[in-house]
Design goal:
By secondary structure, this protein is α/β, with parallel strands linked by helices. The protein folds into three domains: 8-121, 3-Layer(aba) Sandwich (Rossmann fold), CATH 3.40.50; 138-305, Rossmann fold; 309-448, Helicase, Ruva Protein, domain 3 (Orthogonal Bundle). It is built from 20 helices and 16 strands. The strands form five sheets. Strands 2-1-3-4-5 form a five-stranded parallel sheet, with helices on both faces. Strands 7-10-13-6-14 form a five-stranded parallel sheet. Strands 8-9 form a two-stranded antiparallel sheet. β4 (81-85), α4 (90-98) and β5 (103-106) form a beta-alpha-beta unit. α10 crosses α12, α13 crosses α15 and α19 packs across α20 (438-448).
Amino acid sequence: MKMKTKARILIVEDDAIMGESLLDRFRLEHYDALWCRSAEDALERLSARPVDLILSDIRLPGMNGRALLEAVNGLAAAPPVILITGYGAIQEAVSALKAGAADYITKPFDLNRLMEKVAGLCPEREDREGFPPLGVSAQMRQLESLLPRVAAQAGTILITGESGVGKERVARRLHDLSGSIPEAPFLAINCAALPHPLLEAELFGHEKGAFTGADRRRTGLFEAAGSGSLFLDEIGELDLSMQAKLLRAVQEREVMPIGSHNPRRFEARLIFATNRNLREEVEQSRFRQDLYYRINVIHLHVPPLRERREDIPWLAQGFATDCSRRQGKRCVIAPQTLEALTTHDWPGNVRELKHAIERACILSDSPVIQRCDIFRERDVGLSETRAGDTGTSAPAASHQDFDLSTHLQRCERAFILEALRANEGRITQTAQALGISRKNLWEKMRRLGLEADGPGH
């Protein structure tokens, strides 16, 4: 059994008491923590030993934390950086975020809150069995805790959940946990992707000459899976005649290749998945009741992202990190963008979130991903309407209805509107948060048709 791999944290702090305190707490949490008293020492350590996250005070002797951030951003695989700022140094923090810091925390800070930030940016790489976690939410942790027991005993499993939630990932985890020999394959097929005749030949195999074009014998997936696992996705899309043939295979643990009169036994674990409610399909006579009972021996449900929002920032950060490695450039998601991601419903679930992050990382000119890099204008408009905006949101439009200048203006408008809401309409605080002057903010609001209705503006 493999041991848990915790993230490696580099602490950059010149204050001895603060540094020792942080080092002790990280090690108590089982992180692999290092401590440097200067930015120069930290860069030297980084050249010899990569880390998963840097926690640095912004005020350091010699090279300061901001300069360290810029140096780290120049690395091919730059780790996320959290900067520690002084009380009330909002302008300093905003500037750091614009420069590419993953997050900031203000002194005096709650260590528990810091641990939450660190866990969100670099969660545990592997669980106690040596596999990366499926999620950090309570729902996914509970699901994950069932998998070793299911993998050890169940030969037929049904996984349900909306499209894009990660059903195949759960199926692969079951296969990995099953203790099969290393050579045992994991084979997957989408039952909705092939017409009935091709699907039958793909699953059960065929003899030479069984039909036109069958110039040689072909082994079906049931046999090819050997002692491994066969994953049949979109099982609810099968027609009734194919369901009858599948029922016999599941019930007898044998298949009849097309053109053969000799059934063949198979040993593979069968994992079925669907985004349909099969019980309702049975009631509507669209799915065989006997097949439903045969495959519904162990039922695992993967909840949609909107029901486990704690996973959204964790997943998004992971996707951004993957993009950074593949593209060889820095990609970090701004905290306000993570908040917007978390409140979005993601009807396409994990698949939609992943594609949105990848698109933003590729198209953004800045290393810091902002909200307008993720959401199209019509999504921003919908989000503002849900948040209770009554007339200040930009009208929804497709990308064909306006040019780049208009799109950038609408993104700027949405961003300023979000900042105004966060600061309850207070112009001074909003301007400080945006890193611009009050006059500049007033001019932008006038140009964009925004009005301040908060106190003290």
